[in-house]
Amino acid sequence: MNIDNIKKEFPIFNNKVHNNDLVYLDSANSSQKPQVVIDRIYDFYSKEFSNVGRSVHYLAVAATNMYENTRVSVQKFINAKDKNEIVFTKGATEAINLVASTYGQKYLKSGDEVLLTELEHHSNYVPWHYLRKSKGVKIEFADVNDDGEVTLESIEKKITSKTKMIAITHLSNVTGAILSIKEITELAHSKNIPVLVDGCQGAPHLKLDMQDLDCDFYAISCHKMYGPTGLGILYAKKKWLEELPPYQGGGGMIGEVKKEGITYGDLPNKYEAGTMQTAQVIAFDESIKFLNKIGIENVMKHESELINYGQEILRKNNSVKLIGNPKNKGGVLSFTLDGIHPHDIATILDEDGVAIRAGHHCCQILHDKLNIPASARASLGIYNTKDDLDKLNNALNNCKKIFNTK
Amino acid sequence: MNIDNIKKEFPIFNNKVHNNDLVYLDSANSSQKPQVVIDRIYDFYSKEFSNVGRSVHYLAVAATNMYENTRVSVQKFINAKDKNEIVFTKGATEAINLVASTYGQKYLKSGDEVLLTELEHHSNYVPWHYLRKSKGVKIEFADVNDDGEVTLESIEKKITSKTKMIAITHLSNVTGAILSIKEITELAHSKNIPVLVDGCQGAPHLKLDMQDLDCDFYAISCHKMYGPTGLGILYAKKKWLEELPPYQGGGGMIGEVKKEGITYGDLPNKYEAGTMQTAQVIAFDESIKFLNKIGIENVMKHESELINYGQEILRKNNSVKLIGNPKNKGGVLSFTLDGIHPHDIATILDEDGVAIRAGHHCCQILHDKLNIPASARASLGIYNTKDDLDKLNNALNNCKKIFNTK
Amino acid sequence: MNLKELYQEIILDHGKNPRNLRKTENFNKDAKGHNPLCGDKVHVFLKLNENKKIEDISFEGSGCAISMASASIMTDLVRDKEEKEAKDLIKDFLDMIKEKPELVTKSLSEDEKTKLMSLSGVKKYPMRVKCATLAWHTLISAITNSQEEINTEKFD
Amino acid sequence: MNLKELYQEIILDHGKNPRNLRKTENFNKDAKGHNPLCGDKVHVFLKLNENKKIEDISFEGSGCAISMASASIMTDLVRDKEEKEAKDLIKDFLDMIKEKPELVTKSLSEDEKTKLMSLSGVKKYPMRVKCATLAWHTLISAITNSQEEINTEKFD
Ligand SMILES: Cc1ncc(COP(=O)(O)O)c(C=O)c1O
Ligand SMILES: Cc1ncc(COP(=O)(O)O)c(C=O)c1O
Questions:
Q1: pLDDT tens across B83-131, in order?
Q2: Does residue C156 fall inside a structural domain?
Q3: Under an 8 Å CB criterion, which residues of C touch A?
């Protein structure tokens, strides 16, 4: 499959927005879905629907096999050692909550420190904050530098003998900075500290190799990876899934249930309580196949060309200020425009069919640090083109016209 | 819409199973989906997809409106007082975990009692068991009687001055017993005890009126209500959602976020952390419209005819033993067959295209009480007919032939 | 074209050069408002005299053109009004922004009405309605002197 | 028709009248197994003599025809085998049930092989494979004497 005309695989682009072609630059928020994924959901519900894992009839057996196939596909896609290291969740947010809650419950006590970075999304902060409230755990933040990066050194600086968890983003959803996970993990492990990676933006844009990164936990949102909404993945090293207590309790995750006590099921069941997102898991297999067909190297090459081009034209546009200038950057172009609030930009761009996001992008701490209340963000998917970025730039010039600024 | 030929609205029935028409009697596990719901998912992903609540562009605004429309539809469907009493979750299991976790955290202490019944599904037991482990809360079980019912009296008997929560099923997924929720709630409230209702089986089969039932919490799984997988609903009285702490933490549920602390958003955002099941919520509106078009009274009439007919023919079949004989029964026909294990029944029935479930149906405590390791269960949906039940009975006779039993 | 209706001259003017963007000396009522979605913040200061008349009103904050213009216009229109009159005006404005086609208030001159109606462009932009109403909700809470921030619980 | 292959006479016979369904006196090894999906339970008892030969084997439990027949046939075939031979047989059986077309073991007579192969009908019923293998996994754990139940952690 050729990435240069991949747009045609996404039916959304057949539609007009305010009579304009859709220029979708909000993929960091959620990506559009290729036809194959949409079709798979349709076919599954129309011809093959059943719950998984519980019944032994024909439809149930087939659905269970397809469900477990996706687990294997994900395992291969991220090069995990064992398929049972893949746990399906509601989203990356749930995946991080799962880890914070179970790890915190078992291993953290008052005075222990969790090390985050100033780049973190609220989803990788609030769950840890709960442990501050319930257990007196302390939260530290590694500094972001002027280029919008968090370096290995700035993390090292904040590690103390009390640090019991490092939880960091793989790729910032605001500055686009890509963190050196492998080096950070090495450092952390040398001090016996586990590492959780918020891979929400890493997964759609980077080649993933869990055994190489060697992180302990990796959280993914499938809806940002050309997959259905309502599905996420927690990768966790097997020893953690074995050691940690279960998270939600319910059907499917138990061994034996008596009035006096309960035993829990084997992996991965232990962490998949209740009826799961059957259709979404089964359809997500198509997202992975789709990405594999394109080739993740081609995705990375394509997007890095776009990021470079985008930075180039926005830098030429005098009133645009790009946020962050990381050496290793992917996926997003955040900026401000002199004299025009990001919210006004987003509204005006929308009229030209250009969809971006304005606000703090769930990163208030970073925006406080940058001393801006909000920013505008154009974020990329595989379907974007240089033409899309030209249209973005033109639409920004239109903002200036409306606001009479230069 | 006429319920008598409603099968044709469900595309799954155009397919054959082992060359036979599908006789789907596993709806208590998960129901099939009508064409309108499948189409809505397809169209939303193909033409209208965006994340909700975060961006201000055209697609995001439209999606946000549709998402919130479903909340209003659900509110009306269950006659809740306020639309912000409707919280979307991953499923009923998550809904119950949410309540057990937040209520337990704030209000329960060692020695307090949570009162369940012997009918409860593991999803309405394991979350409470966690509080037994973490807080020393005690769990009591109201007795099931020989007819497979739990009466108001058997609940009253187990209430003590230490009872701090009553968590009970609306309709048993094994015996089909419908509990007198309104009376139980009245009794509980007279003693200042809140009531959580596991409405997994209540919601697809009964007319719901939260203000009339007056329960404090009601948990629903949308996939059992002709809706998409991966979606559930927690109804909770507003005062509880205001008083209880948040559950999962992440994007969308916050007010202000600083390094030192966090404020939480208004209802319902406070309980909807992270990217939600956008497509599923939007499609579920169609499930509700579909049910409304048929009329929930017609659903109840149709299903009660089927239950009566099913009981009649199975009683005539000498080797069949029905489980439970509740005066007020809905949705399910569970049974055993002399000399043939339920698992073998399910396998043989499947060959005739008859899909049932065998096992403990996530109710081990009830099966222990009944002193059977497992049972077979035929469960009903609106698409079932008397013909389906005749086919079930014929297939059971086929089992007897294969096993040479009478 | 709707954008022209949204970003009318008067809005752009008030957005860029908001009136009353300062802190009233000796204010005796105030409240903070916050829109978690976009990060807009506003802090409204009031000086009510003994006859419950608004002697001065001002605000501090930052936000988009719509929210700044709205705060600016609001403070202009509300000054010198009785508390009761102000409350009626707020209600009238909020009704208009949400559903009603017109203002019904009699306490404003035609000029003032035009100024206020310039904010009605947001009606076609549902996600922006909150920008236009934030200052007004904050004003209510300043008048009724509820201590909590609008849209914001206490830090946890 | 597959059902006939699954429920062969021999399976129905062993399912209804399982051999060795009792508790070995003076057993010196045992283990419990459990299938959470269907509630099948089995408890295997072994008496190994000083030469590591299986002097007696028996089981208690309840379950579907497949799991009962499997335990019944297994106990029949394994009695009087050396521990090593038994282990090889278990491995051979599990391989056959999961992927291999045939048994490769030489320790069984043709009759015994036929008996064991009667369980191969489950291959076409993936959800039932666990029924056929539960007793065998439990036997492994009895021999290796691991204390935990198969498929079951300690009560929490
Ligand atoms: C009575 C009852 N409670 C709870 C559940 C759990 O619902 P879910 O698995 O959809 O979370 C079910 C269904 O499996 C049920 O029947
Ligand atoms: C870096 C990052 N972390 C976490 C999240 C939360 O993901 P979700 O909302 O899908 O749970 C997002 C996306 O919103 C993100 O960009």
A1: 999 999 999 999 999 999 999 999 999 999 999 999 999 999 999 999 9
A2: no
A3: 1-3, 6-7, 12, 16, 37-41, 62-66, 125, 128, 131, 156
Which residue's CA is the nearest one to ligand 1's atom 14? B29
Please tell me if residue A126 touches chain C, with a CB cutoff of 8 Å: no
Q: Which H or E element spans position B87? A: strand B86-89
Buried/exposed C98-126: b ≥16 CB within 10 Å, e otherwise: eeeeebebebbeeebeebbbbbbbbbebe
Beta carbons of A347 and C39 less than 8 Å apart: no
**CB-based contact (8 Å) between A93 and chain B?**
yes
| CB of residue A97 inside a 6 A radius of ligand 2 | no
Q: Say if D155 falls within a structural domain.
A: no
- Residue C101's domain is classified under what CATH number? 3.90.1010.10
Length of chain C, in residues: 156
| Smallest Cα distance from D37 to chain B, Å | 7
Calculate ∠ Cα B309-B314-B319, nearest 5°: 175
For residue C2, the chain A residue with the least C-alpha distance is A351
Give the count of alpha carbons within 13 A of B221, CB side only.
Answer: 27
Looking at this predicted complex, what is its ipTM? Answer: 0.93
Pairing label, strands B357-359, B375-379 = antiparallel
Distance A102 CA to ligand 2 centre (A): 20
Q: For residue C73, give its domain range.
A: 3-145
Per-residue pLDDT of chain D (156 residues; tens, 9 = 90+): 578 889 999 999 999 999 999 999 999 999 999 887 667 889 999 999 999 999 999 999 989 999 999 999 999 999 999 999 999 999 999 999 988 888 888 888 999 999 999 999 998 888 789 899 999 999 999 998 755 555 444 566
- What mean pLDDT is predicted for residues B196-217? 98
Chains D and C touch (3+ CB pairs under 8 A): no
Distance between CA atoms of residues B218 and A295, nearest Å = 46
Give the 3-state secondary structure of residue B325.
Answer: coil
Does the CB atom of residue A200 touch ligand 2 within 6 A?
A: yes
Q: Is the peptide bond before A268 cis (omega within 30 degrees of 0)?
A: yes
For residue B101, the distance in angstroms to the closest alpha carbon of chain C comes to: 18
Contact B116, B265 (CB under 8 A): no
Beta carbons of D151 and A266 less than 8 Å apart: yes
Which amino acid makes up residue A154? S
Q: How many domains does chain C have?
A: 1
Give a yes or no: residue D130 inside a domain: yes
Q: Inter-chain contact A344–C7, Cβ cutoff 8 Å? A: yes
Looking at beta carbons, which pairs linking B152-161 to residues 24 or more positions away fall under 8 Å?
Answer: B152/B180, B152/B183, B152/B184, B152/B187, B154/B117, B155/B115, B155/B117, B155/B184, B155/B187, B156/B187, B158/B115, B159/B115, B159/B187, B159/B188, B159/B191, B159/B193, B160/B113
Q: Do D127 and A61 touch (CB under 8 A)?
A: yes
Q: How far apart are CA D78 and CA D86, in angstroms?
A: 6
DSSP per-residue string spanning B328-389: SB-SEEEEEETTB-HHHHHHHHHHTTEE-EEE-TT-HHHHHHHT-S-EEEEE--TT--HHHH
Q: Is the dihedral of CA A174, A180, A186, A188 positive or negative?
A: negative
> Which residues are CB-neighbours of B401 under 8 A, at least 6 positions away?
none
Q: Give the model confidence (pLDDT) of A270-294 as tens digits.
A: 999 999 999 999 999 999 999 999 9
Residues A401 and C68 sit within 8 Å (Cβ to Cβ)? no
Q: Looking at the domain assignment, is residue D150 inside a domain?
A: no
User: Which of the residues A347, A351, A360 would you substitute to probe the C interface, choosing the one with the greatest number of C C-beta atoms within 10 Å?
Assistant: A347
Answer whether A169 contacts ligand 2 (Cβ < 6 A): yes
Is D64 in contact with B342 (Cβ distance < 8 A)? yes
pLDDT at residue number A135: 96
Q: What is the pLDDT of residues A40-57, one digit of tens each?
A: 999 999 999 999 977 888
